[in-house]
Amino acid sequence: MPGTRAQPTPVPLAEVGLVLADDGSRWLDSAPAEIAVGAIRMQGWQVQPVRPRPDGFDGQDCYLIRVNYDLVLQEGVPAPPWFEIGIAWSCPGTDGPVAVIDAVPRDVLEAQGPMSYTVSEYLSLVPAGGADGIVLPAVTPFIDAFGIGGGEIRWRHASGVRPGSHSALLVLVVPDGCREVTVDVSARFDLSPDDSLGCRPSNRPGRFRLGLTGPRATQPVAALAVAGGTPRHAVPRVPRVFVSYSHDDAKHIEAVRVFSGFLAVDCGLDVHLDRWDLDQPRDWYLWAIDQITKADFVVVIASPMCKLAGDGQMPNDRHRGMQTELSLLRELLYSDRATWRRKLLPVVLPGRSAAEIPLFLQPQTADHYQVTDMTEAGAEDLLRVITGRPAYIRPQPRHGIRRSIRAAGSPGRPPATDGSNR
Questions:
Q1: Three-state SS for 117?
Q2: What is the pLDDT of residues 28-85, one digit of tens each?
Q3: Burial degree of 188 (CB within 10 A; 0-12, 13-18, 19+)
Q4: 203 plus 264 within the same structural domain
């Protein structure tokens, strides 16, 4: 049910600084010193209460949490051979433990594509059948999880470590009535002797408080799945969105990146953008086919180059990626107009114009979506379409036709005086 999708819970600015610490005996300084290496930075997290409360967990509340964090390195600093993020949970002032019952990724030994998960009646994370579930993006090896069942969960990333965004899912149980948890985040990492300048890797832990209530956390519900895989209620499915745009200039590319990040972090959508898939060599034609056909919605960002490519007026050797994507969209729209007219969403970002929408998307005679700023209010029309939450609900009669309206000639109604039966 897209209408009850998970919303990202704002996370206070928190990051774990990665540093190289000098013990005072090195040449760097006569006193202990630090060299900044980078940081592990917390992003928006999604919090959903798990309902109904499962058997055996009386006196405890349960939540499904999607954790998002970035590995950010200083310019010129090599990626460490491995890094580890640790997250400890507590609920001061309440009786009873806080524990992570299950978490994914667990042990990743080979590359995995995006997967949807739901919560079993035993509070285990299990693959969701069909399209329902909470989406975990693709992961690359090797990732190991530690601490499941306790109050601290740790993920170690080893081999192929690179800067960028990472996500994880966990099931957290807290004492009944706990409305806010204290989150302590720490990190460990390593560098080669040459890269570490003879210093020891260290970190500056971070702490913040995460609310478990409020309009963002209480509206969505992560329903339990019965053993055997049949859900009691469908778990909210995060709509998948592909952002198609042309590389007009650096300013436009950055505006699209910011907009895509807003959809992913602030709105909780499963967003796919070419800038986020530069981790390996790709056949971009096949990549575009895969992204477009898997998407629930394709957002086409209006711009001058987008219109030229969509209208077939672009020179053959320029903006080939955009020409390819728009030709695919025209083909799909022609082959199944009913389906793809619903899935193609022309979007006009701040500073752009509806006149920059390609003609095959009908800028004047069909809907397009004007984004005034990167807030839910500024993108309300677009978000309502993607999430299936209309601003106005068609009213339904309570009892069908009112009983006070009787058929012509029925008892209690005087006959018509003009000879008609109106």
A1: strand
A2: 544 557 888 999 998 888 888 887 777 778 888 999 999 999 999 998 888 999 999 9
A3: middle
A4: no
Q: Would you say residue 413 lies in a domain?
A: no
pTM for the structure as a whole: 0.53
Domain with 301, as residue range(s), is 240-387
Q: By CB neighbour count within 10 A (0-12 exposed, 13-18 middle, 19+ buried), where does 338 fall? A: exposed
Residue-wise pLDDT for 192-214, tens only, equals: 887 887 788 999 899 989 988 64
Q: Are residues 22 and 131 in the same domain?
A: yes
> Is 103:198 a contact under the CB 8 Å cutoff?
no
Answer yes or no: do 132 and 17 share one domain. Answer: yes
Strands, DSSP E only, in 93-225? 99-104, 107-108, 115-120, 125-127, 134-136, 143-146, 152-158, 164-175, 180-189, 200-204, 206-211, 222-225
Q: What angle, rounded to 10 degrees, do the helices at 284-294 and 320-335 form?
A: 40
Q: Give the residues across from 297 on adjacent strands.
A: 241
Q: How many CB atoms lie within 10 A of CB 283?
A: 9
Residue 63 and residue 205 share a domain: yes
Distances (CA, A) of 398 to 192, 393, 401: 72, 15, 9
Helix intervals (H) in 155-279:
193-196, 215-218, 250-261
CATH number at residue 79: 2.60.40.680
CB atoms near residue 204 (< 10 Å): 15
